[in-house]
């Protein structure tokens, strides 16, 4: 699905990531950790073509990102659900319309009402569905971002710190949702600092843990 | 579908597909207002331009195009020389008509000087010939030379001495009208462009979110373009209607048939301002499209 | 401190205290540009207003204020009647001066009709008296009655028949100039207000952050007010300078001494446009202050 | 320092908080927990006068919030350092100027260069001091927000989820900073979901844990 081939990236100063190779297969479940500022968000942005590698290649569904036209990229993004670290919404639309936004812009016809309602229910936002994003709590926004990422049933789900602002029970609930999607064959990659979450996941699914350290991507050992 | 329904359907289409663009806010209001303000000024510039145009045409026609030839000759030769002059004039290119004034007409002309009690026949009044030009007019010096040769008693007075400034004034007024129309049109386009660009820049966040959830460039651009073009069009219509109303209500706009009929439109000229709103919309269309594309190019 | 240093110090003060307000961006540019565009148009409106004002004054002075009295009497009585008429005129209120034309002047006036070969003395030319009005002018009917009684051969020709439309035209032009000045001034104020408001609305985030870290309302408002007022002032100066340059370069702006001296300023009139930038700044000051206070009132 | 007296709050719908009483004494160290959407952020906003209680009273340094003029409130805020959940910065100013912002707007004269540099060093942002806020990672922004909150040496520090996006080591480091400030007599209140953080703190300082549940504020037992 997503292939990184000896990729490097720099924002202009020194290299932030270098010699990164990774293949995300359908059905894989990965965690991504690393100190704050090590490049986790950057890594994810490279994975959905928001940034272009300064060296090496990134292939999305078999296509090199550099060869994709802007429209191809937009259409490819509909197959990748992303939870951003700073959840960005359209502040003038109520929550449920924000969650349905990927469907709206794909012009693939309407939202399945029932599906949308069920999803909103699952992330615990049923009562807040008509609220505007600025009226939500931090955790509510994060849950909404996750709901928006998966509304299109994407093939790949990239989540950047999806549980940073929610309590332990809710984070378990969200994890369950992601694990269930993974069981349906979706590829999942979660960047997180929360080691407890990783431990909880490992007991339920065969998850691998990646770690960014010294500009390299490594597989973490069993010490977690 | 009647026209009102059609317009309403456009307005409603906006509420459906373009919900992704914030519906109100200062930036949209700015576009609306600047389009309206500029349309308003443009209507006035247009009215000024038309009024001065009319003035120039009238002065041009009535003053510039006539001249006078005076035959001062002994009474016995006067008729013959008049004949000769008329013959010369009939073969001069650029002259539409020439005709000797009747004694009554001459008397009317001289009245201010002598009062109406004077018998013209008692005075050595020269015969006057009124010449009306056509096209680019005639060659004044050429005609003068021919008259000198063939009609010794004739003097050509082409009125240009004291009428030229009037003509100049009329044309300078007309240039002024056209100039203000151009200036205001240009400023209008610039302000609408800038308002649309600023409005779009203020919506950078919206564009970023849309791009991130997989919207194509053309989807994003056209959502903005529709909304802002519509706003510019509506603003333009409002400004134009208010402007036309104001011009209509101006004192002196009603034709008085005077020297300068005042600022205003006449007859079919009332149709001219109607091109202002579509032009504003076209400007907004390209400005918004350009700005949207520029913003989008900065994103992946 | 020389003036340039003083201006530079204002510009630099801005970079010190007001760094909290985003220095560039579309909204600031919008304020700058709309101030410039409006100042530019205002200069033209002012030039138009002054040109038409000049025209009205000249036509008013030269045409409206003179009339003619014609004395048609037997040669023997002519001098006496002229004397009598002048006496009447000297006691009529609203008349500045009255004087009998010399034979040479009369000849010059009649030349277009008779040519310059005619001896005036051979003609029964009436004596003409030129009357110059002052203030609101004299009572035409009253004077006519008095002349009828005291100078039987006198006829008053107050020129109003054919000059009135000219005067009307001049005043209608002048009204037009004033009207466009008002229109453009009003639009300028409205656009600057809206641009400043939109710019401020786009900076809602900045205001929120400042308020959260403990900035007082007056600190926040004055940071914005300084910046936008300065931008409006700079924009106004740029627009005014370009506008004045354009007016100066306009063909016909150089005094030709003709009927209409063309669009332009003369002498001290060049100082008038200098009030435009400060006025734009004042408008921006109040608009920004109002908008800042409104935004702030929504926050705690 | 901050006193809540039988206070209630609602955003317009039902009551979110009711019958809340609390006294934050100088030198107190409190944690605030509760499920996502329970009202932690709302509670903090009430504590620094960003919201006004719908019933009961909130007193800051002895003054009822309702009686404070807008300017009084602004000046009072300089004595309260706040870390917001969605860290808001001035995007056009480099990080170090953003951190110094409370000093700039208080017009109390310049920043002590050395103090500022030391603080930036402590939160691990020395290398990023000249970056603009949008160029920072999530964790870097959070650390910057904490630095901004304490630059004025406020009497009270209110932190909303200050470690949601940083790794474990960094969160320990930030905790140490807050505990040190508390030892200097500052009042500290931290809203967080991170139970591990609370446990770590309890071993170093006498911290009390508040919990919002069913619209009430309770003291959590020793079960944490
Ligand atoms: N401006 C607002 N208007 C209406 N409702 C609001 C507003 N702000 C917050 N709320 C609602 O009030 C409730 C409490 O919000 P608050 O942000 O205080 O929660 P929280 O405890 O901080 O949650 P989290 O841990 O997710 O940050 C939420 O359900 C939220 O949707
Ligand atoms: N647009 C940018 N320009 C320059 N530098 C940037 C930009 N975005 C991020 N950086 C820098 O790159 C580094 C990695 O950032 P990134 O957001 O990927 O970190 P992260 O691992 O996600 O951290 P966190 O856990 O705190 O979110 C950081 O030091 C950050 O300051
Ligand atoms: Mg990150
Ligand atoms: Mg919160």
Automatic annotation (TrEMBL), chains A, D:
Q: Which GO terms describe its molecular function?
A: ATP binding; ATP hydrolysis activity; transmembrane transporter activity
> May I have one GO cellular component term?
plasma membrane
Q: Which PROSITE patterns match?
A: ABC_TRANSPORTER_1, ABC_TRANSPORTER_2
Instruction: Give the top-rank taxon of the lineage listed in the UniProt record for this protein.
Output: Bacteria
Q: Which InterPro entries match?
A: AAA+_ATPase, ABC_transporter-like_ATP-bd, ABC_transporter-like_CS, ABC_transpr_LolD-like, P-loop_NTPase
Keyword terms of this UniProt record: ATP-binding, Nucleotide-binding
A Pfam entry, by short name: ABC_tran
Q: Known SMART domains for this protein?
A: AAA (SM00382)
**Which residue range or ranges hold the ABC transporter domain?**
2-224
Entries under PANTHER family matching the protein:
CELL DIVISION ATP-BINDING PROTEIN FTSE, IMPORT ATP-BINDING PROTEIN
**Protein name in the entry:** ATP-binding cassette domain-containing protein
Query: What organism does the record attribute this protein to?
Result: Donghicola mangrovi
From TrEMBL, chains B, C:
CC terms in the record's Gene Ontology section: cell division site; plasma membrane
What keywords would UniProt list here?
A: Cell cycle, Cell division, Cell membrane, Membrane, Transmembrane, Transmembrane helix
Residue stretches making up the ABC3 transporter permease C-terminal domain: 182-295
**Its membrane topology:** Multi-pass membrane protein
Q: Where in the cell is it found?
A: Cell membrane
Q: Which residues cross the membrane?
A: 32-57, 176-200, 232-250, 270-292
Family annotation (InterPro entries): ABC3_permease_C (IPR003838), FtsX (IPR004513)
Keyword check for Transmembrane helix? yes
Q: Which GO terms describe its biological process?
A: cell division
What name does the UniProt record give this protein? Cell division protein FtsX
- Source species, please? Donghicola mangrovi
The taxonomic lineage of its organism, from the top, reads: Bacteria, Pseudomonadati, Pseudomonadota, Alphaproteobacteria, Rhodobacterales
